[in-house]
Amino acid sequence: MKALASFIMRGYAQASLVAAASALLSLLAPPFGLASGAVVALVTLRRGMREGALLCLLATLGVGLLGALALGSPWPALGTLLILWLPVWALSGLLRASRSLSLTAAATGLVGALGVLLAHALVQDPAAGWMELMTPLREVLVQDDVVDPAAAESVFEAVAQWMTGAFAAALVLQWLLGLFIGRWWQAQLYNPGGFGEEFRSLRLPRLLGVAGVLLLLLIGVAPVPGLVPDLLIVLMSLYLLQGLAVLHQVHHARGLHIGWLFGLYALLVVFMPHAELLVACLGLVDVLVNLRARLAQGPGRAP
Q1: What pTM was computed for the model?
Q2: Please, what's the b/e burial string for 228-244 (b: 16 or more CB within 10 A of its CB; e: otherwise)?
Q3: HEC profile for 205-245?
Q4: What is the per-residue pLDDT across 136-161, written as a single tens digit (0 to 9) for each?
């Protein structure tokens, strides 16, 4: 990864090539989208907003050209610019100015929550909109005898109820993970070990923890899909990152083997989404009571 980061920082041509190629590859394998966003983050964090904006422009032209040749349409370039690169570019500028990963993560979550609020304010029934968008996929599955028509209708209706919050949370994680990878690359080149220390100290404002508890109480009163669960899903994406920061801190403080982290992430993949929910709950508790500070004090000492 360090060699790739070094190649990216050689110039705009190299950075644009990696960003554009990984963006197109993300159409086949979505994780490549993280690498594409990380390129924008790395250049913006190291060289500034203006240089990052120029990279976005050059990469958009590159994706447009490659898209026209490979897909017959340049329009994927515009979608990549608006949905991926510009948000990561703006967040990189915020992180560069504030030097606070916590502030940047909180701001990203608020953007996701604002998107949920706008969706519910502008669309009378967001679930119906998602149902309409997913209709072609449902029809294909039914035609290919993959699922029973009645079962497909029921499953897709259930999924559509949660899609607004899930989509917003996915964007929040996409932007932040791209930013984190870019920050990690920057640290590898110019400040070895710096990102690990920065991530382990990630701590969301307590107000976001209180907001999560209030949303949970509201769901307990009225456990139905809608605005409140959608907002909670977005916050849970932030709690997940803080929970991971807690576990990384435990790993670092106790000098555990690197295999411990590999096992952790393997569990997150195998037991998705239940494992993510548990880690997010850990993150929420840490937001409220600062578990890391209490652990650092050691047993038998007053908090």
Answers
A1: 0.90
A2: bbbbbbbbbbbbbbbbb
A3: CHHHHHHHHHHHHHHHHCCCCCHHHHHHHHHHHHHHHHHHH
A4: 887 777 777 667 777 777 888 888 88
Determine contact, residues 283/238, Cβ cutoff 8 Å.
yes
What is the reported pLDDT for 223? 66
74 in helix, strand or coil? coil
Distance CA 241, CA 257 (A): 21
Q: Where are the domains of the chain?
A: 1-99, 100-303
Q: Which residues contact 204 (CB under 8 A, 6 or more apart)?
A: 102, 105, 106, 109, 238, 239, 242, 283, 287
Give tens-digit pLDDT for 23-56. 888 888 888 999 999 999 999 999 999 999 999 9
Assess contact for 51 and 40: CB atoms under 8 A.
no
Asked if residue 273 has a cis previous peptide bond (ω within 30° of 0), the answer is: yes
Name residues whose C-beta falls within 8 Å of residue 199's C-beta, 6 or more positions apart in sequence.
101, 180, 245, 248
Give yes or no for a contact between 26 and 36, defined as CB atoms under 8 angstroms apart. yes
Q: Are 267 and 275 in contact (CB under 8 A)?
A: yes
